[in-house]
Design brief:
This protein has 23 helices and two strands. By secondary structure, it is mainly alpha-helical. Among the domains are: about 210 residues, no CATH class; about 80 residues, no CATH class. A two-stranded antiparallel ribbon has the order 1-2. The chain is globular.
Length: about 600
């Protein structure tokens, strides 16, 4: 087997020039870390593959890249094991005051602190900086922290009023698992989404580094801030389920995120641009990008969509546990009744995701809808779902009687989140990974005049929102929103980008179909019918639809014609080249256009793609 100067196997397509460069230990490590591991992950998760292969430009400096990975892992493991913090984000009991305290003084504000990564300001700053430079480094930090936290950290202080072993294990460990997922949403996901949403927004953005850099920085800042609004409602379960009271309010935490983390994210975007510009001129970096892109295009999915739908439903439900009314009966270990709301949510989400993966693609109107909505930028569609969730929560929480009246009840917020996720499925039917560049910006040239019924609804909503101070004060004594409906709506709406990013990145949608030119029912129906009735001319009567059909052969037997008719009908419905195209396009975009270097300017084309 031939190898490239970078030490990796030569790509099956036209390979770059090679030389007899000696493969050193750092080179072998970066090839293993950024090439071989993503190649294994691609068959199981496109999102994990994208995260692990991100930041490949760092391999231009193998020694520095190797040292970075090792140092980040050791730092994350040490933080997970010790929970040391130079400055701790502290919320006092009753929310009488929220402070940034030193490690020695943090526990003096009403209870134990440093129980979760999210109250460690230094760790958060490092995670945002490293994760923006490379989602791989952010993921490495998350994995290392989780390992140190699980195996070496001191146990959580438990004030449990029951002694059942299973219930105790769930109460202590499930919240920690949720916190690690939340850590990934900050350390790795934002930069992936920011680059991809910017690249697919408009051709001018994807081809111009002067437009793409600011646009990516703005999206990155917004995603980090949204994370800060949602995070306190997620990691609150670490204290709540262990018998304590969550003490960090959403307004204070979002202010800390906006002050400290958002600027770091923006600066890291600019630094990433400079580093990538220097690295992309090196031949070995180009070779790795070509190899990973071509290999990903030839790798099929091993996990079926139904399994991905169930996994996605479980992950989303875990991240929503802070909003759910769980553990109603703390005195008894009731695994069913204490978590009933979570069971209902996960079952409903799984049903919706399965319908989205298998039922909707068979509907002609759904295909027509997808072909229209995919013309518009994904960033605008995701923003629309986020804004809709925010406004819905604002209206629902402003209606007298619907706001929270008991500790742990967040009915309007849960409703808004579920509706926002539903809109995400509808507006982003193929997710945000590997989308083609949008062709339109807005669906109309002028805003249509609303009907009288719509005007009345708008007026009623404005009245309810304006009266929130009179009717919607939360009565929960451990209120996370300080009684502010706008803050509750921000927490609910801000969860949509992160939850929607996880949902859209799991690959549950039938993204391999050519929605613009295909129809499942037509392809299979005509393929079977004409294959059966006309064995020698077994071609479906859908010429010009979908993938080019096989040519007629005079020597076809009935059996071969029947089989060929079925195959052609399948190709007409599901073009086999489509799944390759979007994976290749995504690999190319993440490492090239997504890293602020246009295709025409960089000259980098993944093996197998058109130059």
């Amino acid at each position: 087997m031939t190898t490239t100067p970078a030490g990796i196997p030569a790509a099956p397509a036209p390979s770059p020039a090679s030389s007899d460069a000696k493969e050193t230990l750092p080179v072998r490590f970066v090839n293993f870390w950024w090439v071989e591991i993503p190649a294994k992950l691609r068959a199981y998760s496109t999102l994990l593959w994208a995260a692990w292969s991100d930041g490949m430009y760092l391999t231009a400096w193998p020694r520095i890249a190797t040292a970075l990975v090792i140092v980040v892992f050791l730092f994350g493991f040490a933080e997970g094991a010790t929970h040391w913090s130079y400055r701790t984000i502290v919320g006092s009991n009753g929310f009488a005051g929220n402070v940034l305290a030193s490690s020695a003084e943090a526990d003096g504000y009403g209870g134990p602190t440093r129980l979760v990564f999210a109250d460690n300001l230094v760790l958060l700053m490092v995670a945002v900086g490293l994760g923006t430079l490379s989602a791989n480094l952010g993921l490495t930090l998350v994995i290392a922290y989780a390992l140190g936290d699980i195996f070496l950290a001191r146990p959580l202080p438990a004030n449990l009023r029951f002694h059942d072993a299973i219930a105790v294990w769930i109460s202590l460990h499930v919240p920690l698992l949720v916190s690690y997922l939340l850590f990934f949403l900050l350390a790795s996901l934002p930069i992936l989404m920011a680059m991809e949403l910017a690249r697919s927004s408009h051709p001018r953005v994807s081809k111009s580094k002067f437009l793409s850099v600011p646009f990516v920085a703005v999206i990155q800042a917004l995603l980090i801030y949204c994370w800060g609004c949602m995070a306190p409602m997620v990691f609150r379960t670490v204290q709540l389920w262990s018998g304590g009271d969550p003490r960090i309010a959403v307004p204070f935490y979002s202010q800390i995120v906006a002050t400290w983390l958002v600027p770091i994210g923006v600066i890291a975007v600019l630094l990433r641009r400079v580093l990538f510009g220097a690295a992309v001129r090196r031949e070995e970096v180009v070779e790795r990008i070509q190899y990973v892109g071509s290999l990903a295009a030839r790798t099929g999915e091993r996990i079926p969509r139904w399994a991905k739908a169930i996994i996605a439903a479980g992950i989303v439900t875990l991240l929503m546990t802070g909003f759910l009314d769980l553990r109603k009966n703390w005195a008894e270990a009731q695994l069913f009744s204490n978590y009933l709301e979570a069971y209902v949510v996960v079952a409903g989400l799984a049903a919706a995701f399965l319908a989205h993966a298998y039922l909707l693609p068979r509907l002609q109107r759904w295909g027509e809808w997808v072909s229209r909505v995919e013309q518009y930028p994904a960033v605008l569609r995701l923003a629309s779902a986020t804004a809709a969730a925010y406004l819905l929560c604002l209206v629902l929480a402003s209606i007298p009687g619907l706001q929270s009246s008991k500790p742990g009840e967040f009915g309007p917020e849960v409703t808004a989140i579920l509706v926002g996720l539903g809109l995400t499925l509808v507006l982003l039917p193929q997710g945000w990974l590997g989308l083609p560049t949008s062709s339109r910006i807005v669906p109309w040239k002028r805003v249509p005049v609303p009907s009288p019924a719509v005007k009345a609804g708008i007026v009623g909503a404005i009245v309810l929102i304006a009266s929130k101070n009179a009717f919607a004060q939360c009565h929960d004594f451990a209120c996370c929103f300080l009684g502010a409906v706008g803050t509750a709506a921000s927490a609910a709406g801000s969860g949509i980008p992160g939850l929607g990013g996880i949902l859209s990145g799991t690959g549950i949608s039938a993204a391999g179909q050519d929605w613009h030119n295909s129809d499942w029912g037509k392809g299979y129906r005509f393929g079977f019918r004409h294959g059966f009735k006309n064995g020698k001319n077994g071609r479906p009567a859908v010429a010009g639809v979908g993938y080019p059909l096989s040519a007629h052969q005079d020597d076809w037997t009935f059996k071969s014609g029947f089989y060929k008719g079925i195959v052609d009908g399948y190709h007409a419905a599901v073009p086999p080249a489509t799944s390759v195209d979007w994976v290749t396009r995504f690999a190319q975009a993440m490492q090239k256009a997504g890293d602020f270097v246009g295709t025409e300017k960089s000259g980098i084309v993944p093996a197998g793609a058109k130059a």
